[in-house]
Amino acid sequence: MQVPGIGPITASAIVATIGDAKQFRTGRDLAAWLGLTPLSKSSGGKERFGRITKKGNHYIRKLLIFGMPSRALMAKRNPEKVDPWTAKILAGKPVRLTTVAMANKAARAIWVMLTRLENYRQPVA
Q: What predicted TM-score, i.e. pTM, was given to this entire model?
């Protein structure tokens, strides 16, 4: 797997831990299993999201989150080389929060790659 911010150690740990990615119905289910989705506190039709749950696999979550600051630093240095979503989220949020959001997005991309057995494709701008 060649996902920005994910090296060979993280990729092999993810594949070894997850096994068959089709056991998760969606990419969000995988991200929730890893503990990368925000806690949902909804009432009366109004959705409110809190902190990340941290109830999942802490080792994989840590590897994903620790790999993202390098991607955030690259995006800050060369904003023309990153996708618009990353540039937008880095402009409006704290760096630590954006690294968790990028890890969440990377986990969902990993789920797609593992279920479809495809390589990573850069998002279209």
A: 0.76
